[in-house]
Amino acid sequence: MHIDPYIVLGSAVVGFLVGMTGAGGGALMTPMLILLFGVKPSSAISSDLVAAVVMRPVGAGVHLRKGTVNRRLVGWMVLGSVPMAFLGAYLLHLMGHAKAAQQNIETALGAALLLGASAMVLRYVLDRRAGENRTSAVHEIVPHPVRTVAIGMTGGIIVGMTSVGSGSLMIILLLFLYPTLGAKQLVGTDLSQAVPLTVAAALGAFAFGHIEFGVTTSLILGSVPAVLVGSLLSSSAPDRYIRPVITFVVAASGLKYVGVGTTALGWILCAVLLTGASSWLILKRPWQGSKDLGEAADIAPQLDILDIE
Questions:
Q1: What are 23-41's pLDDT values in tens digits?
Q2: Which of 245, 248, 15, 254 is nearest to 115 (CA)?
Q3: What is the 3-state secondary structure (H, E, C) of 235-256?
């Protein structure tokens, strides 16, 4: 069994993003294995699913301990997702694992994720203008059982038919069904519901897949510590930091699904990060804040002298 240090490093990056956002695991990990490390697609998918069985419970455990998981939402989502995961796998079996059908599903999913990422940006802008703070406590969220089960069913069938990609979509659907749910609660709830769903998909991988234990072990070694760190940050960081990261990962997943190449995707994401950083510097002008603090510090002793006199 060969441990690849580069796979360990790559899986650590993806694991950190999964811990921070609850999304992007399959959409980023599987293409990384196939395109960067030459792993066979069937082995990449199966190994990723098995590694996720170890990785996701770590992140979910952190959020459960921090109290950022709505267990009622998790229960309703699992009720829909697990049976539909098996149904999706059966439908894929009936189609004979047709690549064309699977590609069409992934393209449609990618378009939906890009639309959802755009909607998340629009919602963030509208919330800022309206001065709304979407940080309701977990126990304040009242579940909508039918619609929540439908979200689980949607994610489950996608996992069953494509083996990847439910997390990003579920994050978006949860955000719009429960708009007052805080970002850390979105991440915690999504990571928790993904545990039984991933177990169900991994059982299918064990039964019908082609698992490379060296690749799987490398993924586990890199992703588990990283998802722990990412989950610790996401469970305590303010929403204003978590939501942009979620949007970024969802958009990256969407671009990958619609067929954007790895090199082009890298340049696009770099451009997005550069644009975002430049916009933040222009709007916030942090150097002016430092200057103002310095001037205040210079004036303070003078005010003290005046008070003494």
A1: 766 667 877 787 778 887 6
A2: 254
A3: CCCCHHHHHHHHHHHHHHHHHH
pLDDT 10s digits, 115-157: 767 777 776 776 666 555 555 565 678 889 999 999 999 888 8
Contact 109, 257 (CB under 8 A): yes
Q: How many residues does the chain have?
A: 309
- ∠ CA 141-143-149, nearest 5°, is 145
* Half-sphere exposure (Cβ direction) of 49: Cα atoms closer than 13 Å: 30
Domains in the chain: boundaries = 5-260, 262-309
Dihedral of CA atoms 69, 73, 75, 77 in degrees, nearest 10, equals -120
Which residues contact residue 309 at a Cβ distance below 8 angstroms, ignoring those fewer than 6 apart?
none
Quote the crossing angle between the two packed helices 145-162 and 183-208, to the nearest 10°: 40
Tell me which residue of 183, 197, 181 sits closest to 144, measured CA to CA: 181
**CA distances, 304 to each of 101, 295, 297, 309 (Å):** 76, 15, 11, 9
Tell how far CA 6 is from the center of its chain.
22
Give the Cα-Cα-Cα angle 173, 176, 11 (nearest 5 degrees).
45
Residues 222 and 225: their CA atoms lie apart, in Å, by 6
pTM: 0.70
Instruction: Report CA-CA distances (Å) from 139 to 22, 178, 180, 182, 282.
Output: 20, 13, 12, 12, 39
Residue of 102, 113, 174 lying closest to 143 (CA atoms) = 174
Q: Tell me the pLDDT tens digit for each residue of 166-214.
A: 667 787 788 888 877 777 888 888 888 888 888 877 776 676 656 788 8
DSSP 141: P
